[in-house]
Specification:
32% of the residues lie in helices and 31% in strands. By secondary structure, the protein is α+β, with helices and mostly antiparallel strands. The protein has one domain: Gcn5-related N-acetyltransferase (GNAT) (Aminopeptidase). The chain has a seven-stranded mixed β-sheet. A hairpin with a 2-residue loop joins strand 2 and strand 3. The longest helix is centred in the middle third of the chain and has 20 residues. It is globular, with a radius of gyration of 16 Å.
Length: 172
């Protein structure tokens, strides 16, 4: 199975996608295309298998965001100006249940990192942030994401990954 990751296209078949989480399924089916092409508030990237190049088997969505400087630990913002930091929001990431456990999540997040580094080089931004479900915090932590303190008592945990860490990992 050869996987390609590319921008969502209007004629992609998203209806069979099922990651086991209704809000993530619903977003892909009902909102991803509109948010990308009409509202310009997020871009979705899809994983497709070369045997069914229009059927989505995984996806992630990126958008721009900002977070107050004081939300970060002081060691990460030392020397930065005293205003909100520009960030990339990894708004969603999901893999169809039929393809879970095959490394597709790793391929998707790796592509999100590549896109994030390219965007940061063009417009400047400091980190990637995501809102991780409680049961996925450990998965994101394996990639270097760190919780932002005080952002969740219940529900998703806001986490960030400094893009300098991603650059260093790619060089090393």
């Amino acid at each position: 199975m050869a996987i390609a990751i590319r921008r969502l296209e209007q004629n992609d078949d998203v209806a069979p996608f099922d990651c086991g989480d209704e809000p993530l399924n619903n977003y892909l089916e009902r909102h991803a295309w509109t948010n990308q092409e009409k509202s310009s508030i997020g871009v979705s990237y899809v994983a497709v298998d070369d045997t069914a190049p229009r059927t989505v088997i995984g996806y992630f969505t990126l958008a721009m965001a900002s977070v107050p400087r004081d939300a970060f630990p002081k060691k990460y913002v030392r020397g930065l100006p005293p205003y909100d930091l520009p960030l990339i929001l990894l708004a969603r990431l999901a893999v169809d249940r039929r393809f879970a456990g095959r490394g597709l999540g790793h391929a998707l997040i790796s592509e999100a990192f590549r896109i994030g580094l390219n965007a940061a080089a063009e417009v400047g931004c400091r980190a990637i942030v995501t809102d991780a479900y409680p049961d996925r915090i450990g998965w994101y932590a394996r990639y270097g994401f760190v919780p932002i303190e005080g952002t969740s008592d219940t529900g998703p945990q806001r986490m960030y990954l400094d893009l300098r860490t991603v650059r260093a990992a790619l060089r090393g």
